[in-house]
Amino acid sequence: MVVRRLTGYLAALAGILYLFFMYNETVLSGILVLVLIYPVFSMFCLLKMRRRVSTAMERIPPVGEKNQRIRAGIVVRNRSRIWNCRYILEVSAGSRSGSRRERSRIRGTVGAAGETTVWCGFETDICGNIEVTAEYIWIFDLLGVFCIRRRIHEGQSVKVMPKFELMPLEVTRKTREFQADSDEYSGEKRGDDPSEIYQVREYQRRDPLRDIHWKMSAKENVLMVKEKGFPLGCVVLIWIDLPVKESSLAGFSRVLETAASLSVTLVEEKCVHMAAWYDERGARIVKWPVRNEEDAYEMIWSLMDAECYRDREKKQVCYDDAFRGQDFSSTVVIDGQGNIIRDGVKVELLQV
After folding, report:
1. Rounded distance between C-alpha atoms, residue 329 and residue 189, angstroms
2. CA torsion through residues 334, 335, 338, 342, sign
3. Distance CA 309, CA 316 (A)
4. What's the first-to-final CA gap in the chain, in angstroms?
5. H-helix or E-strand containing 150?
6. CA dihedral sign of residues 283, 289, 295, 299
7. What is the pLDDT of residues 154-168, one digit of tens each?
8. Beta partners for residue 342, in sequence order
């Protein structure tokens, strides 16, 4: 781009020099002087404009969806009160650690003491954190002959969510009837926790005498029985294993898709569960209880910021410490490639 414009300027200068030597005209002398001093004047203006033109990542959407076009806006401001600014802005989008980045160059003009929004769109076939970055801006002089480049490298993250689709899943009777400790209780079924009353009803022959609610019986003048509560603890553990050796952009994208589908399917089956993964930087296990769809979306949102770990031994120590004394009816592992592992074997039809 710069070479082409410089070649055009030199060609114009050569033409004027030819005319200057061929014809003895005063006006040609004036034109030649203007052409010769124009690069100096242009460089002075460009250096001034370089400090007065700025960009801001103010209109980047915080969230997008896989395989859906994401529209992002970058604000270009011109603080000069004299000159209009012609520019070309280079924008890229892609994963921070990925080599494949979609790039585009957008031309535009911003008036003196004004601002404009540059809009660009991109699609991505992976889930996770995608960064939209303003890489460079080329600022042109008044005639558009010369330009100066300024490196910006200012980025904004967009979280690309996976689709939450139901998957084949069978919830066994063992899981249905498994009671885990919790401060919340079901309003739909009774259990065996005497610390919480599910409901009070009239006595029937099959009811044990120890369950009679004597105060209520005396008040109603009929035998009443209290049914015990069913605690809504997490009965299934989804362990998301992210070792560095198994990590890849495509693999992490599949991890997000598998975790989203599995979690929303368990919610649909009214199975309270917990998703967990290892945070090596904080040396802790991140636990995320999921009781409804909103919890599932928030879990995936948090999982997008997870980083792969290197130290397996330290991970195992943290895992054992975090879940010591805590029981689950089933533990499901999602490996670094998004596969569902049960008892060390990859499964297609999952039973929990």
Report:
1. 18
2. negative
3. 11
4. 61
5. strand 147-161
6. positive
7. 888 899 989 888 888
8. 345
What backbone torsions phi and psi does residue 351 show, to the nearest 5 degrees? -120, 130
Model-level pTM?
Answer: 0.71
Taking CA 248 as the corner, what is the angle to CA 245 and CA 251, rounded to the nearest 5 degrees?
110
Q: What angle do CA 171, 175, 178 make, to 5 degrees?
A: 160
Run of H or E including 121: strand 115-122
Name residue, tokens 């070792």. 243
Q: How far apart are CA 91 and CA 106, in angstroms?
A: 8
At 217-255, the pLDDT tens digits run: 777 677 776 665 444 467 889 999 999 887 888 888 999
The neighbour count for residue 122, using CB atoms within 10 Å, is 20
Q: Which residue has the tokens 């007065």?
A: 52
Residue 258 — φ and ψ, nearest 5°? -65, -45
Segments in the chain forming alpha helices (H): 2-22, 26-52, 173-176, 214-220, 249-268, 293-303, 312-322
Q: Identity (one letter) of the amino acid at 263?
A: S
